[in-house]
Amino acid sequence: MNRNLDHPGLTSWLDGGPACNGWPTDTEAGGRTEVFTGTAAAPPVQPPRITVAPAPFPSAHEQAAHELSLAIALVLNAPQAGASLKQLVNGSRIHPEGALVLACLLALTGRVDAAQFWWQFAAGSGSTTAAYLLHLHHQQAGETRDAAYWRAQAENLAENSRHRPGPHRPATALLPEQVRHDILARCHDGLAPRLPPRLQAVLNQLVVDGEDEDFGEIPQPSASLVEDLAAAR
Asked: Which phi and psi angles does 6 have, rounded to 5°?
């Protein structure tokens, strides 16, 4: 089953628009983002549509919070999310896409500081999407100076990567279809997305490598994280 989200302003940062470096690579057409929920072997049939509520939120920080939730949902729905997370722990080089996915998972468990750490790691490694999520993260907190800084960083990264193809990743769904559907449905209803307890438990068991001076305890991805998430379905 595919779910389409009408949100051209946000998806331009996420799906190959004027400020994107190719991640996520959901199919985009006519301003709609087609969220991955099938496989190449068994493509979805007759996709229905979910649209984001068109009315703006009453304040800038509420609007930013909504857009951040939606962006997190799109990152975790990207077809290559599972493969990217695997590359973060099993690859021989830095993989900003995997750090982006890990940050979004941590954000859904309420570990906002740890999520910010990994978003900054991903943005520092060249992820336009991570930089834009940091813009939204600070905007929702009313931290306008930091929000403006990360918006500028996202624009700079997008300009530098405009003609550089994004990394190829096989289509490997990270979360069960029902979980991804629930995350998107909650975004549509204006609610904060969340993970079911069984998946939160997997993330809560990640080893914490010391304590960062600015962000506190930072969970580290395990080599079996993708498999552990799959086993908890």
From this structure: -80, 100
